[in-house]
Each structure stands twice: as C-alpha cells, then as structure tokens.
Design goal:
Oligomer: single chain
Radius of gyration: 28 Å
Structural class: mainly beta
Distance between the termini: 24 Å
Number of strands: 30
Shape: elongated
Largest sheet: 16 strands, antiparallel
Helix content: under 10%
Amino acid sequence: MRGVLVCCLLSILLPGGWGNPIDIVLQKRAGTPLQNLRLYADSTFSQPTRDRLLAGQLVEVLSESEIEHEDDAQKQTFKWYRIRSLSGQEGWVFGDGLAVSTPTIHLSPALRDFQHQQLDFGSGFERAIIWSAGVLGLDLFHAYSLLIPLYSESYLVLTNVQGRSVPIYYGGEGTQGKSELRRVEFQELTGDSAPELVLLQDYYPLNATQAQRQIELYSFQAGSVRKIFEERLSLPSTDDHPCPYKYVELDKGSIRVEYIEALPCSAYHLPLATGASQNDRPCLEYVTSTYSWDRQQKRYRILYEESRAAPQVRTTQAGVVLQAAPTATSERLRALSPNETVDVIRERVTFTPSRRGTLRASYLYVRLADGKYGYLPTPYTRFVGTAHAEQLDRYFRREEQPTLSEEWLYYGIRGLRRDSSVYNR
C-alpha cells in the first residue's frame, strides 16, 4: 500500500510520463540492461535493429520466449525477452544481459523486506526505489542442464524517478559453485548523509559444505555505486580452529578487523615462550587492523597495520592457582587474584586413566603480568577483550558451538542504531 501511494503521488507531481518508472517497478515486470544491448526484431539474432538500450535503463518486460536459446560465446542458454523502453522502443533482447525483476515470493528473507522500499541516496537518487532482479540460464556443460537452471546472477537494483537504474551484484550460481546473501543493511557510515550498503555473503565452491563468508560495503557516489570495502571473513579451513571467522566492526568513519589465528607454535610471531612440544595444540594470536574513511579520496585507507598480541583471559573466582605443569598435583607457582588478566599462549589437553574411564582436562598455558609462565585450569577462566570471547569460551569448554546463522559472530556496527533498516535471514 505504501508503495502504491508513493507511485500515485509521483505520477501527479512529475510532468509527462515521468511517473512510469515507479509504475513499472511496482506494478509491472521490470528489467534493466547490465550492459549496452542491441534490440532485435524477433527472438533470434538474425534481424538486428538500429535501436540500442543503454546499461542501466529501466524497461518493461512484455513477454519472453518459451525456451532457452544457446549463446555460442558463453556455452550457456538464456531466454529472449520482448521489452518496451520508457521512450516507447520495443524489441527483443537476449537474456544474458538483462536483469529481470524477481517476484517477492522468490526472494530470500534477507531481501524480502527491502523490496519496493525507498531510500535517499542523493545525487539524483533522492527517491530511489529498491528492487531485486536476476539473470537465469542453463549451463550446457552440466549433466543436468535440461532439468535445473544452474546458471544465475542476482542483483539489488536502485532506480530513480527518471528511470535510471544501478544494479549491484550480490549472488549467483554456476558450475564453480554458488553464492548466497545472508544479510543486508543500509547504514550511513561515511559522513555524507547517504546510506551505505552492507552485504554479508556466503560462497559455496562446487561440492563444498562449508561456506566461505565475505562482507562487502558499497557507497553511492555521484550517481553510481562503488564497492568501498571487502573482507573475506573465512580463515583458512582447519578441523580444529576455535574461531574460523574474522569479526568486522563498522563505525562512522572507520572499520576495525579482528580475528584469532591458530598456528603451529614453531611459526608463533610473539616474543613469548611457547613451552610447546611437537604434539601440543596450536599457539594462539589475536590479530587486529583498522581502516579510516578518506573523505577526499572517498575510500578506506589503512590506519593501523595488522598487529598481533596474545589473547587474554581473566580468572572467574578466587583461589585459582598457576601450576608448573598441566596436572592437579604439579607445583603451585602462585595464587591469582579474582579477575586477574593474563596472556594465553596455547591450550594443553591431558587424559588421565581412572576407574570411571579416561578423564579429560583442559589447561591454558599462560603468561602473567609479572612474567611467570604456567598452566591454568580452563573452566576457571573466561576470555576478554575480543568480540570472539564467547565463542572462545564455548570452544575451550567444549560446549555447543554457535551456528553460521548467528551473525553477531562476524560483524557489528558500533554506536549506530539498529532498527527497521536491519533485516536478518
């Protein structure tokens, strides 16, 4: 209803046919060329016309061919679409270069609430309407290409009241794998009063079950959209990593990236004694870097290069004792104060036979502020000073690990109100 009211208002206020772009997006089947396209007289390449569509024009899709047709250059098949431009041109275009509106029912929950909403991006896009579009086809090299539309591209499109559109690629599927959109946000991050677009994406290589996660930021500048930041959040895959993803903190004018790296103690970067044997578990490092927004260059620049430190824990109760070895009967080196903070170097796990079976115990090898090294029982500590603290605690206590859907593990927005402009999958 809101979209219909906006559409009617624009039709009244704007001269001539300038209300049509909003009508097409809201009430008809919209499309936009991804590059300059030639119009054809029918659904074949045999009758080209002199008419061309420019990339980013808004068009109305009138009909489509019943079957897909081969594109020899790409070895894929796509449908033909009969379109009408805002100026009244009609003709056919091949579907590999036309993003066609996606019905709301087919959108992921991450996008559904944004469909047909309006935001002010400035620079001629003060009343831009948001909609989703896609390119669909079949891949000729896939064994099931006759049954499954294995090739797809998905776009978030911004269209102004003059009919100019800006498509932003956010996912797709092909023979190499598929990517999915997990989260969308519009938040003003650079101080120009126009909201930036934040995308959290998962990419699944072919036959992979574990996603590679990435965050991307887009800024609307002078009537076009630019990618201003991207960071792969997935760390190199291992079977035993306490935090396999980075965390990105977004603030007005700055971005901070942090992660926990688990690496062989022989490759440890810090000037601390690891006390490790060949069979010990990996050493841990807390890695951070910071970027700041350059208003003149309109891009993020590195502010603080990547730095490394030891993760830290605090004791959770009085009477916790630093021990010389990871056993309950080893030499007691010093009693720690409640909430005393120490550096963590690695974990040591021990297995002790007993009448009830083998007992498993976890210790953290740590360094105190006074320079002493030793072992603390993991259950009497908690990690601090990192966005990964809760995940680290769960891991070292062998509690249930958080799922990929818990987005707080991967990024956060500091000091900004999170309200109806935020939508979760």
